[in-house]
Amino acid sequence: MTKLRDIIRSQIQHNETHPVPYTLDFEEGVDEELDAYYGNTDWRKKLKSYIYETEVVETMRKLPTEQDIYERDPYGSIWRMDRRPFHLEKPALEIPSLKGYQWPSPEEFYKNETDIRNIRATCAEKSSEQFINGWLGWGLFETSWGIRGYENVLMDIVENTSFYESLLDRITEQFLTFIDFTCTQLPDNDAIMFGDDWGEQRGVIMGPERWRKLFKPRYALIYEEVHNRGKYVFSHSCGSIVDILPDLIEIGLDVFESVQPEARDMNPYSLKKQFGNDITFWGCLGSQSTVQFGTPAEITSEVLKLRAEMGAGGGFILAPAKGIQPGTPMENAAAVVEAFADDD
């Protein structure tokens, strides 16, 4: 019997597989709602777990403060945690200057030795069957606005470009260290995954040209380092990034997740025709449309179509563009479960 890990690898290598692999995540109690909907937990056993995601570097680490609703990250930014999602309350760098700023050491983001030993042992066990994905959380853009504030970073990109490039260089150096640590501590991992939301519904937030100037050369270094370690490069971005997909392919992105079909020019079937020979798409089931507002029959039909058309010739991992969200009708959430589980 073919291992789930090998099925993922085959898809990344653009070899068609049967079944088509998938992942299915649930946010904030949706799985418990499904337990109640079904009246038992048997539905969970129907689902396969192709990818095991883990981390030894917590790039989004936050530590408690004296006030329960606030937490502080290693950069010194204060976050409010009692809302969905959590949001930045006070950035560490309120002015565009690194002068006098104490940069956190990489060790401040590492999990403790006991946790790492346990994670390593789990990965060694799971790697006989599952694909191991080493998660590195937020990427260069998201880390930068976590330090400076979102509005400040958008102004920095235009008005304080020299400072912003210096900030990105420091973050890039840090991520190269994080890659080294992850690959050293998790020798069984297959890939390194980054998350950086460059896109919104209409296009690239900072514009394609500025993305190419600021982010492309730095991510080229990061992706090269991952490949030098013999690992695949995975990256998440929400929104429309069609304008920079050729650039991401050029610098070595192997798998792009989440592929939101509702965003501009992000129809997965069109993307498959344009770029399907050069990159693997992970996601593609519309969380803002089909999952939330379709009928169960429409969900089943779309899953079948994605498997057939996106899976043709390999280069596809099926998933909702986002984990199943709170407020999703339970009959729709169940339809996703049943359609995914029925993968023969």
Give the topology.
Blueprint: H1 4-12, H2 30-38, H3 42-46, E1 51-54, E2 63-64, E3 70-72, E4 78-80, E5 87-90, H4 113-126, E6 131-138, H5 140-148, H6 150-159, H7 161-185, E7 191-195, E8 199-200, E9 203-204, H8 208-214, H9 216-228, E10 232-237, H10 245-250, E11 255-258, H11 268-275, E12 280-285, H12 290-293, H13 296-310, E13 316-320, H14 330-341
Parallel strand pairs: 1-6, 6-7, 7-10, 10-11, 11-12, 12-13
Antiparallel strand pairs: 2-3, 3-4, 4-5, 8-9
Report on this model:
By secondary structure, the protein is an alpha/beta fold. Helix content is 42%, strand content 16%. The protein is built from 14 helices and 13 strands. The chain has helices at 4-12, 30-38, 42-46, 113-126, 140-148, 150-159, 161-185, 208-214, 216-228, 245-250, 268-275, 290-293, 296-310, 330-341; strands at residues 51-54, 63-64, 70-72, 78-80, 87-90, 131-138, 191-195, 199-200, 203-204, 232-237, 255-258, 280-285, 316-320. The chain has a seven-stranded parallel β-sheet. A four-stranded antiparallel β-sheet has the order 2-3-4-5, with no helix packed on it. β4 and β5 form a beta hairpin. α5 packs across α7 (161-185), α6 packs across α7 and α7 (161-185) runs parallel beside α9 (216-228). It is globular, with a radius of gyration of 20 Å. It starts with a helix and ends with a helix. The model has no long low-confidence stretch (mean pLDDT 97).
Summary, kept brief:
With 344 residues, the protein is of the alpha/beta class.
